[in-house]
## 1
Amino acid sequence: MPPPSDPWAPPGPPSGEGPGRGRGWLFAVGVVSALVLTGIVATVVVLAMRTDGTTPTAASPAATRSAAPRAVPAPGSPTPTPTATPTPTPAVTPASTTSPTAAPQAPLPTAPTQPAPAPGPDRSLKTNALYGVDLGKASVSCDLKVRRPKPPLADKKLQPYLTDVVDCLTKVFEGPLAAQGFTLEQPKVQTYHKRVETPCGDFGQSGSPAYYCSGTRTIYWPDTVDDGREAYTFARLGYVGLVAHEFGHHLQKTTGMLDAYAMAHEKATSKGGSKKEGYALSRRLELQAQCFEGVFLHATAKDLDVSSKDRRELKAWHSYTGDEDPPDDRKPDHGSSKSQFGWLDRGLDSGDFADCNTWTASASKVG
């Protein structure tokens, strides 16, 4: 979810890593709250500069005067009698006032040719290498105790438990992503009371139940959201599901999709661009994170004892979080309740990242 400045909104790039001017972005993205939601995002584009040097050309030596050719008599002609020719006195040439010609220089040595670096994994939105990750071969399991949000955890126990959930997510995804060329670093978790300042903006207790900031690769969690006012507390998998959604944004950052999204969003909304197109891109980003949440629940279904009852509770949770729900000023940037649960259910059914490609889905699927 977003910082108070509403980074998803098209009016110009926010500071930090949101779709920003220059070439840097900061992202804060969060899951939908039953109250208010929005989101931001982070990236840095580094410009590389190449300088070309020329090797000095060796100076050409001065031309040597050629002797005049001697006539060769034709065959049968009388041999002429040579006559003495006085040797002319050489004229004295005054010393030149110009600088002497520089001696030729050998070409400067050149560095040995280096082989071109091997291409990295595809980091685009539509054909990202993440879609080729095979979780079926993952043998890592999670020894994670599922903790229902009601009654809520004591604030001092909240951060350690959320960190345990992140540990589990990292263990499940780290190896398979490495096989595709991605290095997955574990994101941090920070709970906070009242307000917290981040590179992505200042977050309060109202708004979203959680935020992911790409600038610090941290999931920020207000410590009162589990006290009964948020929709996710309806579900046994409330804590796990919400962390998994925010971790989904971390996967987008790790695989380059969050950066690619920021560039596409800036292009769509800058210079009088379309708010409608900007919101459509935001929905694709958020619904993909929903699907990633489902992929994780599929991979850990046995360890976490995911049941049909859990699925019904997840559906009930998201019936309160759609763009069509109150408040009336809610931005259409996370998708309808139907779309949110639909993409989560899609990932939960298949357990395949390839089924989470919201960037190629029809507009009706990401409404």
Note: Residues 141-365 form one domain.
## 2
Amino acid sequence: MKFSWIVFLLVSLGILSGCVGLTPKPIFTSTSEAEKHKSVASSQLQQEKIVGNLASKGRKTTIGLPLKEREKIMQQVEKYLGVPYRWGGMSNNGIDCSGFVVVVFRDALGVLLPHSTSKLYSLGETVTPQDLGFGDLVFFRDVGRRQLLHVGIFLGGARFAHASTSKGVTISSLQDDYYRTRFLGARRILNAIRNKH
């Protein structure tokens, strides 16, 4: 019972917040850093193709999206790598975390999502960390205030793409201490959206 109240309070606080609680800072990303992330993203997609091939041969995998959809998502992620963070932004001039999720899914798959971290957190179904699949949304909280603040797109292999306030659009690891200690949960939104139509 106590756990359900804690979850209720966290969700309620998340609804009242989102990426908007963060103060944007100017970001300067070198071309070489952006190219490095594109290389990591491309090698990650190659790994996903291998896993996809294993799945087509009957081996179990947690990847639920067809290869073509994963490729389209990765193309959009790569397009935005290195773009600076800008609160409320949804373009190559600047983008925030929920805006990044919105444009990637809109441009890759034609899926329209709300530009709000808390609203994204209310969509779809809960996914355990062990069952994360490519395209699932990963959410993070502010440790001090324990409120929902950040969202990214899971790419597999503990990697996720997101618009960081300090680095702009980048690929990070869920195993990094910073993200591991702030991880709130994950949601699988595509199945729920498709089932509504």
Note: Residues 31-56 form the longest helix (26 residues).
